[in-house]
Design a protein that fits this description.
- The mean pLDDT is 95.
- A 4-stranded parallel β-sheet has the order 3-2-1-4, sandwiched between helices.
- With 242 residues, the protein is an alpha/beta fold.
- The chain is built from 11 helices and 4 strands, in the order H-E-H-E-H-E-H-H-E-H-H-H-H-H-H.
- Helix 1 crosses helix 2, helix 1 crosses helix 7 and helix 2 crosses helix 7.
- The protein is globular and about 45 Å long.
- Helix content is 52%, strand content 7%.
- Helix 3 links the parallel strand 2 and strand 3.
- 34% of the residues are buried.
């Protein structure tokens, strides 16, 4: 059974140790989307480091209909934050590669995530920070993260926790329900992650933790996605000759 309090406390101590060893006076820089992962990650960093050492970065791409959720989170935690609209940067990057025969849909989905990560590192280097990776185990398992986008970072508090477990810790922190339960949306099609994946996180989390699943077809899809995207979690292959 998942002991949320025990895991939360251990994670807080892990964050403290990371910063003691990798930037004793540094700040945690967290990209704030207003969803469960960035909310719980920021809350963990606040408990570990204090709110004065946590900086939130809100990065709408043009107009963002749910940006109020991100503002709610930074207000709830009382942390300093910056708003950096990446819309024009994304447009400029797309314009610069417009000579391609076709700019793929996946490119348009992943480019904002990669520009957001570049923005986080720009802020981090300017404030003496370390960038938090906010990915969770469930999304990583099926490759639902952008390599060198939201899949990057300097430390990763949630990468061994399923979506269900992250939400449980969010409730333990007393975060607003609207942040903990907000369905993740891909930002382009308007569909939720679960719509795009074709199965629920509840189903995925149960399979990851117990190996149990009701549909063989869903199991095969999960394992196909896991195998196809496993490279995202591994170090870059490098040629050796000695």
């Amino acid at each position: 059974m998942f002991d949320a309090l025990k895991v939360k406390n251990e994670c807080v101590e892990w964050i403290k140790k990371f910063f003691d060893e990798n930037g004793k006076d540094c700040k945690a820089v967290v990209g704030i989307s207003g969803g469960k992962d960035s909310s719980v990650c920021a809350a963990l960093c606040v408990e570990a480091l204090g709110k004065d050492r946590v900086i939130g970065v809100l990065m709408p791409c043009g107009e963002q209909s749910d940006i109020d959720m991100a503002h709610l989170l930074v207000s709830h935690l009382g942390i300093k934050h910056y708003v950096v609209n990446i819309g024009k940067t994304v447009e400029a990057a797309l314009d610069s590669i417009s000579e391609l025969d076709e700019i793929s849909r996946q490119t348009r989905i992943n480019l904002p995530a990669r520009i957001r990560m570049s923005t986080l590192y720009a802020v981090s280097q300017s404030v003496n920070g370390r960038v938090a990776n906010t990915c969770n185990l469930s999304e990583d398992y099926v490759g639902y993260a952008t390599r060198y986008g939201d899949g990057a970072g300097d430390f990763s508090p949630l990468s061994q926790m399923t979506v269900t477990e992250v939400r449980t810790i969010g409730r333990l922190f007393g975060l607003p329900d609207v942040l903990v339960d907000k369905p993740p949306i891909d930002g382009l099609s308007g569909k939720t992650d679960e719509d795009n994946l074709g199965f629920t996180y509840e189903t995925l989390d149960r399979y990851i933790r117990t190996g149990e699943i009701d549909s063989q077809k869903t199991k095969e899809k999960i394992e196909m996605l896991h195998k196809m995207n496993k490279f995202k979690l591994l170090p870059m292959p490098s040629f050796t000759f000695i």
